[in-house]
Amino acid sequence: xxxxHLDIIERASRLADQVFVAVMLNQNKQGLFTIDERxxxxxESVAHLDNVVIEAFEGLLVDYCRDHEARAIVKGLRAVGDxxxxxxxxxxxxxxxxxDTLFVxxxxxxxxxxxxxxxxxxxxxxxxxxxxxxxxxxxxxxxLNRANP
Length: 149
Prior knowledge:
Elements: H1 3-15, E1 19-24, H2 35-45, E2 52-57, H3 61-67, E3 72-77, H4 80-97, E4 100-105, H5 115-123, H6 134-147
Parallel strand pairs: 1-2, 3-4
């Protein structure tokens, strides 16, 4: 999780009564942290937001939305490349279940951030303080230092 993600979650929490942060369990991707670790780190990062719920899910996001009676999906967009991909997903999701997707432009302070870039910088010993939420920083450094002795 980067501060770009946190910014989108905080902004969504001001727009909706309840915000679900759905963390996908994808058997085909090996993440840096387990699903349970990710949920804990996300939970600590959004603890100041009373209307945010962090949950894992498997399968289609639109099924998760239907099961939770969520009326919309909120997606942050950093650049045009994000829009091209996310627009296709939004149109498919709407076709499947009628759920709308709301695009939120990323705060320019964070528009260059990506999880993969953060991991790369940390793996080479770079300082990402201020780019990830405080609860994420130390676990991220420790995990990547263990992977790259």
